[in-house]
Design goal:
Shape: globular
Low-confidence stretches: 98-106
Helix content: 25-40%
Largest sheet: 4 strands, antiparallel
Mean pLDDT: 79
Strand content: 15-25%
Radius of gyration: 14 Å
Number of strands: 4
Order of helices and strands: EHHHEEE
């Protein structure tokens, strides 16, 4: 039985996150947090790269963080079962620079 919980991204889930990433097979959403790694030239397969990426994900919702072109400020949450990453959810407070602060979007992807 799966007992799903929401948690902040953590290097702890690197192995199962990469398994899910490999299973997915492609980066088909430009706004995906995985694109953040690509924009900062971070290798997610290296321990230090994955840890750096997690730190960037933690900074993304902060008001002083300026995401790279094409990425929106967002809060990323992992859906986990124990030590297994099942997927992620993210919330973007603004869809575009023209959007009012009351508009937001939430997206989710489940992997296993």
């Amino acid at each position: 039985m799966i007992h799903a919980e929401l948690t902040k991204p953590s290097p702890t889930f690197r192995k199962t996150w990469l398994e899910s990433y490999d299973e997915w097979g492609t980066l088909d959403q430009d706004s995906s947090p995985a694109f953040l790694a690509a924009r900062y030239d971070v290798n997610l397969r290296e321990d230090s790269g994955f840890t750096r990426w997690v730190q960037l994900l933690h900074r993304m919702p902060l008001t002083d963080f300026q995401p790279p072109e094409g990425l929106a400020t967002q809060t990323t949450t992992r859906v986990v079962d124990g030590m297994t990453c099942l997927g992620s959810a993210r919330r973007r407070p603004l869809l575009q620079t023209w959007a009012s602060p009351s508009r937001s979007a939430a997206t989710a992807s489940l992997c296993h």
